[in-house]
């Protein structure tokens, strides 16, 4: 006989998982309901997460946990909006100079897709999409749901921050995991990411799993394990999901810092610049999205369609329309007047002893922390951000360090901040007499169920 909720006890759920037993769907949903209503205490959340660390969650448990967390709050419904194309999105695990969202969303919209992107803030050394958007004067990152959905319908995409109504159980679970050394558990990470994407009402999802010294996943084996979990659970939850593993042993864009990254995205959308690592990854993710969602049947043709949307200016037009509808200025792509500049903009020159040598490698995490140290990221919760600061025009692996070359251009609010950032940047570089072997592609692998 099936047990009723009255027969389920929170301590027994924790005990079962602690002892390596499989939790039922009912037990998982009951636990998450208790997290949402605060019947479950912070101590019990911590105990459950630690039990998952040691005993893991199987694929079915991960799927049940994801769906329970999705259902802990509002789930966007799109049927009544009469969209004439598929609903899709991507999610990145975070890196330095990851400005993909500002290019990918309008490209997909120009190709006939709809992208309701619920984004986050910066974490540790990585930048956050919402922080970058807040460098655009007037942009509203917290619109009401109806306005958000209206912009998606009219222009094909909108980007906003997570509200308290989306997967609230995840918000509480993550806050506890963050201070109890239980963040690094693939099942819990999977449920945290996918519950919010499912709450946005997506039909399909492409994951961008960053790998390398500037990523949270530093090696391929751990990245593959997380990617497989995300693809399996997302697909089993009714949202077909695939993953690309992409290189993060150097910054993706040529800049890192909130306003600087937005301006770089504008340069790519306007075609003032082209051919960067950022553009390559964006087009590969766009092609995967177009095939997975059913807009295109062939990956080669999908990439050509995405490239055409970018080159024709259609993506730029969609970007301007959506940004303006969310409170930002009109005709943003053609100029950068809305953005203020930092007080100190100076190059960090190649050290004399390194002249004539090749850049062998970068400590990308240290470069990200240099931006944080300038005030472009947070070292404590709710810390204000200086959107003007950051670094740009990195000297990259495989390039020769010549006299007078800059390792990077630093945008700082003071001379003392510049000096601290300069030291961090210099320490992040490794030089060699030998030409380094480089990755032939930013995309390392493709994984699916």
Shape: globular
Oligomer: single chain
Q: What's the mean pLDDT score? A: 93
Largest sheet: 4 strands, mixed
Return the domain count.
3
| Overall helicity | 40-55%
Low-confidence stretches: none
Q: What is the CATH C-level name of the largest domain?
A: Alpha Beta
Summarize the structure.
The protein is an alpha/beta fold. About 45% of the residues lie in helices and about 15% in strands.
What does this 3D model show about the protein?
This protein has a four-stranded mixed sheet, sandwiched between helices. The chain has a four-stranded antiparallel sheet with strand order 6-9-11-7, with helices on both faces. It is an alpha/beta fold and 449 residues long. The longest helix has 17 residues, at 220-236. 52% of the residues are buried. It is globular. It contains 16 helices and 13 strands. The chain folds into three domains: 5-55, Transferase, Pyrimidine Nucleoside Phosphorylase, Chain C (Transferase, Pyrimidine Nucleoside Phosphorylase, Chain A, domain 3, Up-down Bundle), CATH 1.20.970.10; 79-336, Nucleoside phosphorylase/phosphoribosyltransferase catalytic domain (Pyrimidine Nucleoside Phosphorylase, Chain A, domain 2, 3-Layer(aba) Sandwich), CATH 3.40.1030.10; 344-432, Pyrimidine nucleoside phosphorylase-like, C-terminal domain (Aldehyde Oxidoreductase, domain 3, Alpha-Beta Complex), CATH 3.90.1170.
């Amino acid at each position: 006989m099936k047990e009723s909720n009255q027969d389920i006890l929170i301590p027994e759920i924790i005990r079962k998982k602690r002892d390596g037993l499989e939790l039922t769907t009912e037990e998982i949903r009951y636990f998450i309901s208790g997290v949402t209503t605060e019947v479950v205490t912070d101590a019990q959340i911590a105990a459950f997460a630690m039990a998952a660390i040691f005993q893991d969650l199987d694929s079915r448990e991960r799927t049940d946990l994801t769906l329970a967390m999705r259902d802990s709050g509002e789930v966007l419904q799109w049927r009544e909006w009469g969209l004439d194309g598929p609903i899709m999105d991507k999610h990145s695990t975070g890196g330095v100079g990851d400005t993909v969202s500002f290019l990918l969303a309008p490209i997909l919209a120009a190709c006939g897709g709809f992208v309701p992107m619920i984004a986050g803030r910066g974490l540790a050394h990585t930048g956050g999409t919402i922080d970058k958007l807040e460098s655009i004067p007037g942009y509203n990152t917290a619109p009401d749901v109806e306005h958000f959905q209206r912009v998606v319908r009219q222009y094909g995409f909108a980007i906003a921050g997570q509200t308290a109504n989306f997967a609230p159980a995840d918000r509480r679970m993550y806050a506890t995991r963050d201070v109890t050394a239980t963040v690094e558990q693939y099942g819990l990470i999977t449920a945290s990411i996918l519950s919010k994407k499912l709450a946005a009402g997506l039909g399909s999802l492409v994951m961008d799993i960053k790998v390398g010294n500037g990523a949270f996943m530093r090696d391929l084996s751990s990245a593959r394990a997380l990617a497989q979990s995300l693809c399996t659970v997302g697909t089993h939850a009714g949202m077909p999901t695939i993953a690309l593993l992409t290189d993060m042993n150097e910054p993706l864009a040529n800049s890192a810092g909130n306003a600087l990254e937005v301006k770089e995205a504008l340069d790519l959308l306007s075609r003032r610049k082209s051919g960067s690592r950022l553009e390559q990854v964006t087009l590969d993710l766009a092609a995967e999205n177009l095939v997975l969602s059913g807009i295109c049947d062939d990956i080669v043709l999908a990439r050509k369609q995405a490239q055409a949307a970018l080159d024709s200016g259609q993506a730029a037009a969609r970007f301007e329309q959506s940004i303006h509808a969310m409170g930002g200025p009109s005709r943003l792509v053609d100029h950068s007047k809305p953005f203020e500049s930092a007080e100190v903009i100076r190059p960090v020159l190649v050290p004399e002893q390194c002249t004539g040598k090749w850049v062998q490698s970068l400590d990308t995490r240290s470069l990200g922390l240099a931006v944080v140290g300038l005030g472009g990221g947070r070292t404590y919760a709710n810390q204000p951000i200086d959107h003007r600061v950051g670094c740009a025009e990195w000297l990259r692996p495989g390039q020769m360090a010549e006299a007078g070359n800059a390792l990077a251009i630093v945008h700082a609010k003071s001379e003392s901040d510049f000096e601290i950032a300069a030291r961090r940047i210099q320490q992040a570089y490794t030089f060699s007499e030998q030409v380094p072997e480089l990755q032939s592609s930013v995309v390392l692998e493709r994984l699916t169920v």
